[in-house]
Design brief:
Arc Repressor Mutant, subunit A; 5 helices; single chain; mainly alpha; globular
Length: about 110
């Protein structure tokens, strides 16, 4: 088996299972960091999280309409929501992103 094949298989399993390295942060530490990150963000991020949670849909165009903002700001909000773990990565083709929050989870939880 070549090194290239081993690296490919390893990358597949890391992606499939998530990279949980020994000494990785506990989940509550990640939540505290996300909460601190959110505290530094403007009110628009919290509004966007609430809209995404309620509608179970996430796209820049939807945030534009609901928040009455321009596309550049809506696109940045979507990127921030992805960094916070609220929405998944882009699925391409103008399709809405997957919402990763449970319906009962809120912006402050």
């Amino acid at each position: 088996v070549s090194d290239k094949e081993v690296a490919r298989v390893l990358a597949y399993w890391q992606k499939a299972l998530g990279e949980e390295a020994p000494g990785a942060q506990a989940p509550w530490e990640e939540m505290l960091e996300a909460e601190a990150y959110l505290a530094d963000r403007d009110d628009l991020v919290e509004q966007a999280i609430e809209i995404v949670r309620k509608t179970r849909s996430a796209s820049a165009s939807m945030l534009q309409r609901r928040l009455r903002i321009g596309y550049p700001r809506a696109a940045r909000l979507i990127e921030e929501l992805e960094a916070l773990g609220v929405v998944g990565p882009s699925r391409g083709g103008g399709r809405p992103r997957e919402v990763l929050l449970d319906e009962e989870e809120g912006a402050g939880e």
